[in-house]
């Protein structure tokens, strides 16, 4: 009995047809690996749960001090809402903004210094999955801010909308806003290289994003140049949707659908940009 030639076996193994990945399997892999990255990020909260408590101090101070003082000013046109009600949605969005900005890029640079990013980049994990995983984890982290703001504003007498659909809408808006600004922070982290530079840029950007929005005053009060910046600021649309969903007598200027669409498109664009820049972290 003659044995087959080794090269014939090798040719047969090489020429064995391989399955081509279709679009469905690629999307499934992207979602699966994004959720795995998100799970790894969320697990960090078990090692330092006090971070959630520390992050809730700043919005509490804004509501207790700034809100109580400016509620006495009658020149700010807030429609049928008391100023504290008008401001509460903006402070929730502000707390999400601060957590996202100082969580995404800072954590990325820290992981690069520890060599963790290099290991992920050496794996077959898609770069977009790495970005989405961190953004999803940041969205989950920011959900605790909803509980803090709801409890505090309720104690201050703000009339909240406790309908289950309204609460789900608020959670969705907080999640999408956190994902957007976390991805924006990751882009900065890909370019900033050091923690000190990331801290400086983060502080430089958070205040203009906050004050160039409708968080603590309506857009109608702004000068024309600031109105333009407000209309291209994603935080404006997050606050607008939160104000119409979170408050019992609140209303949305642009509409809940348009606000969510702008946040979703912003998230997609920022994720694609960050996916391209992500390998620069290891340089």
Automatic annotation (TrEMBL):
It comes from the Bacteria. Residues 50-281 form the ABC transmembrane type-2 domain. It holds the Pfam family ABC2_membrane. Its main location: membrane. Keywords: Cell membrane, Membrane, Transmembrane, Transmembrane helix, Transport. The keyword Ribonucleoprotein does not apply. It is found in: Cell membrane; Membrane. InterPro entries: ABC2_TM, ABC2_TM_bact-type, ABC_2_transport, Nod_factor_ABC_transporter. The chain crosses the membrane at residues 91-110, 131-153, 165-192, 204-220, 253-278. It is a multi-pass membrane protein. Belongs to the ABC-2 integral membrane protein family. This is Transport permease protein. It comes from Anabaena azotica FACHB-119.
């Amino acid at each position: 009995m003659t044995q087959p030639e080794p090269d014939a076996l090798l040719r047969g193994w090489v020429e064995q047809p391989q399955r081509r990945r279709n679009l469905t399997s690629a999307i499934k892999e992207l979602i699966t690996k994004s959720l795995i990255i998100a799970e790894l990020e969320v697990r960090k909260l078990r090692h330092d749960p006090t971070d959630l408590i520390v992050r809730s101090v700043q919005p509490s101070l804004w509501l207790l001090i700034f809100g109580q003082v400016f509620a006495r000013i009658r020149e700010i046109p807030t429609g049928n809402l008391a100023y504290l009600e008008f401001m509460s949605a903006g402070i929730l969005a502000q707390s999400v903004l601060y957590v996202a900005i100082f969580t995404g890029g800072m954590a990325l640079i820290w992981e690069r210094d520890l060599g963790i990013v290099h290991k992920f980049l050496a794996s077959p994990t898609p770069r977009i999955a790495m970005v989405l995983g961190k953004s999803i984890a940041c969205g989950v982290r920011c959900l605790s801010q909803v509980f803090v703001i709801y409890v505090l504003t309720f104690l201050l007498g703000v009339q909240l909308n406790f309908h289950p659909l309204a609460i789900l809408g608020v959670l969705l808006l907080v999640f999408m806003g956190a994902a957007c600004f976390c991805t924006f922070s990751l882009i900065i982290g890909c370019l900033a290289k050091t923690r000190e530079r990331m801290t400086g840029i983060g502080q430089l950007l958070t205040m203009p994003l906050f004050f160039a929005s409708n968080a603590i005053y309506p857009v109608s009060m702004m000068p024309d140049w600031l109105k333009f910046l407000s209309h291209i600021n994603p935080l404006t649309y997050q606050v607008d949707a939160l104000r119409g969903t979170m408050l019992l007598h609140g209303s949305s200027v642009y509409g809940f659908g348009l606000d969510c669409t702008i946040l979703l498109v912003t998230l997609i664009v920022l994720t694609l940009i960050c996916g391209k820049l992500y390998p620069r972290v290891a340089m």
